[in-house]
Amino acid sequence: MASLAGVAERMVLAGDGLGAGTLQWGDREGSPPTIGLTDRDLRLMALLYDVNFLSASQLLMLGWGDAGERVGRRRLKRLHDSGYVDRFRPIRKSGTAEWNYRLSSLGWSALTEQRMAPGDHAYTPTAITSISYTEHDLQLAALVLRIAQDATRDRGGGLLDRMPFTWKGPRSGRIDTDITEEFDCSPAAELPVGTRLHPEDSRQGYLEPDATLIGRSGEDTWAVLIEYDRTERPHKQIDRLRRYDHWLLSGWREGRFAEHSIAPSVVFMTARERPLRRLIETADRTFEAWHGHEHAGPREGTHPARQRVVFTSRERVLAGDWTMQRTPSLPPELREDFRVCSPRSLMYDLPSLFAGSETTGACT
């Protein structure tokens, strides 16, 4: 049996080098065995549906933790052989890579029967149109699980049962702008009387965060939204940055986040440290929305995106460095030298933020 360190290390490095070779899909026997699905099986499958892909080591840490690798591997094989999940891995010249999993059509049917997935539309297993998208999803999942593991280091068992936040993937975490449902507003979502909103060049539109982490402690609820960018092309993020600029100005106050006791935060992560600076500079030129008293100017107003969006890299997170950066508090045209962008550094320790949160489970 492999040690926890071995499983945990593979969990964190899932997605690295996936595109190095041809993919091999797992074979099944002609007559798949029939198995009874457990609550753990269904919860793992529901998470697979929401986040698209998970590696074997990630599923093992979620379902069985540090003491059940052998049992977990047998169960994953049975779920695959019974047709509830598909699995694939890159072919290597020497040795074998670990399996990666996605939900199958049969698994989807099982979830809809248990009302653990929306049954009002058809489901097609996530296609691997580009291996880079698969790497993106696996690496993003690794970052989320790293946060959960560090926040619950002294607890045993699978992360499914001890995760200190609700983890929503891009499907369940999607934020639409055509909301008809009304939500109660917390004091944090209410603006003072006489406040005027100035959207400027921000853009209203849907958002689909790569991950949404929702923490709870007593009556307090808060959310951290994560966007993971592997493109190293900051200009491709401009439209998304404009939508977050508008949503942090007013959109979050009109949807389900309005009930939260703290305004949501957004973390943009680059895959490497090198493009981080250029992404911050791009955001600095993009964030323009602000609000203030009806007679106030932009210099006296509040620029929410400049307060609530932080930037870091995967390299920092994997190294345990929770130093993140924000754009300057004022847009370039309001600064003494508009050509200079001096990011502000802060400690935004996500494991510590969620360490005191109530255990909520992996997903809803």
Q: Give the helix/strand class.
A: alpha+beta
Report the radius of gyration as a whole number of Å: 22 Å
Total number of β-strand segments? 13
Oligomer: single chain
Can you write the helix and strand succession as a string? HEHEHHEEHHHEEEEHEHEHEHEEH
Q: Give the domain tally.
A: 2
Low-confidence stretches: 1-5
Mean pLDDT over the full residue set: 90
> Could you give the distance between the termini?
31 Å
Largest sheet: 5 strands, mixed
What is the helix fraction of residues, given as a range?
25-40%
What does this entry look like structurally?
This protein is α+β, with helices and mostly antiparallel strands. The chain has two domains: 4-130, Arc Repressor Mutant, subunit A; 168-355, no CATH class. The protein has twelve helices and 13 strands. A five-stranded mixed beta sheet has the order 5-7-8-9-11. A hairpin with a 2-residue loop joins strand 7 and strand 8. The longest helix has 21 residues, at 131-151. Mean pLDDT is 90; it is low at 1-5.
